[in-house]
């Protein structure tokens, strides 16, 4: 637990408070969400994670008006958060760490083994913050390095036409807030360079360089909040201010044996972010492995899916879907999951034909799925699924109009 580090370090104490705030704002959203409930699963609204497609055996909660178990659980968590606040006030850091473990465990389970519909980039941040603060030595250094690495790794998904050419924003009716379309590539490339290079200066012993980087990222987060809202900056920027703000001090990299778990965590982050690059095709188009790492603003998505349900009595029913915003990741896995569950649940279904058309950044619609019977297909969480066509295989079937962010 290494609670002495927190007890002797004001920066880590504030970081611990920032982590508690992250759980509060995240669980506030979970409280009102019905996507991880038994009724959501039974009505084909929820989707399990690709590597845990049998999550229904763990979805035991129910939301109002169907039951009280979910709000009861989150009120218990709320009480636990208040208890942690009291322990922080009493400066009983070991007890505070132990009391936070149930929140960490539930959030970890929900992120990796619960519904795919609750996942956000910020969940990965929270998990890394918690692992470092609860379990690892050299907490201050690895929190700082983790924050910088998140910036750097996010550029892996940004090195694409969405950001190099500015296609993410030029493909939207509203463009980039307050700036003309011609300037969009200038700003998007500035962000790429800043996250790839300037972020490292947050760790600098040179006060001018360190403060310059901090001011840039402060401006970046306030500006981007126009689009993303309060949730993301509350989790990320609060921790940035704690680690790199008024109390900042240079922290030398540790290389003793106690630092090995921390370096192992850093290597794991890098491998997770790079893993989609080892899967055939553009992960932003096929969405295979896309959520293994950071994926915020990786592409402006538009999609159209069409399913035809063929009953054994000869009747048919159409199920059509059109994406409503650039933020909706057009993942054929979600449709596959819902439709194959429908096949399994309804004995009167003979087969379901399915097409899925996907456009990135205002480019052409590629028909990445075209099958006569999606019920007969399986989905691999690791590697490429042959029934999902890559950009080199898929047929172009049309072109989109401009998109909306929300």
Protein architecture, described:
The protein has 2 domains: 3-278, no CATH class; 283-398, no CATH class. With 406 residues, the chain is an alpha+beta fold. It has 15 helices and 5 strands. Strand 3 (349-360) and strand 4 form a beta hairpin. The longest helix has 23 residues, at 10-32. This is HTTM domain-containing protein. The chain crosses the membrane at residues 12-32, 72-89, 96-115, 121-138, 145-164, 184-203, 215-248, 260-279. It comes from Candidatus Kaiserbacteria bacterium RIFCSPHIGHO2_02_FULL_49_34. Keywords: Membrane, Transmembrane, Transmembrane helix.
Structure summarized in a few sentences:
This protein has 406 residues and is of the alpha+beta class. Helix content is 49%, strand content 10%.
